[in-house]
Amino acid sequence: MIKLLLAEDQGMMRGALALLLGLEEDMEIVAQVGDGDEILPKALETEPDVALLDIELPGRSGLDAAADLRARMPGCRVLILTTFGRPGYLRRAMEAGASGFLVKDGPVEDLAAAIRRVLAGERVIDPALAAAALGAGPNPLTRRERDVLAAAVDGATVADIAAKVHLSPATVRNYLSAAIGKTHTRNRMEAVRAARQNGWL
Known about the structure:
By secondary structure, this protein is an alpha/beta fold. The protein has helices at residues 11-22, 39-46, 62-72, 87-95, 108-119, 127-136, 143-151, 158-165, 169-182, 188-197; strands spanning 2-7, 27-33, 50-53, 77-82, 100-103, 124-125. Residues 134-199 form the HTH luxR-type domain.
C-alpha cells in the first residue's frame, strides 16, 4: 500500500481528495492536515510514502514544508497540488525538493497516476506550467527583498516592516526600492501584487 499524507486547508476539498484516493486499491490516507505547521510532525508520526501538499496553507506554506520533509524525511516524496499554477511556485517547489507539481483542476486518475510515478522516482510536472516556467525566467528578488515584500503584504508601514524583519527603516526602504525596480512596478503594493502573481512570494 502507498501511504499518503494530505495537506489541504479547505475541509471539503481535503475530504473529497481523501475519499477519491481512498478508492484506489493500492493507496491509503494515513494523515490529513489543514495547517502547514502540522505537516512535519504528522509525517514523522505516520511515515507516509508520498505527501500531497497545497501551497497556500495557514502556518508554514506547502513549499516550506516540502523543504522540511526533504531535510527530515528524504524518503518521503512530495507532490505539490495547487489551485495556483504560477511559474515561480513551480521553480520554488523544485528547489524545495518536490517530486511533482500539479494543478487541482485535473482528473483524479491523473493524480493517482502521478502519485505512483513520483514514488517510482519520476518527476511529474503539469506540462503547461512547465512551459510557462521556462519562459518566465528565474525569480529576480533576493531572499531579503522577498522577506520585506512579504511583510508589506497588508499595507504595513516601513516602521512596521522594519520591526517585523529586524532591519532598520532605511534598509527596508532600500530593499523595497530594489524590489519595485525589479518587478517594474510603481509602488510597494504593486510590487507585492506582481511578486505574488509570479509565485515569487
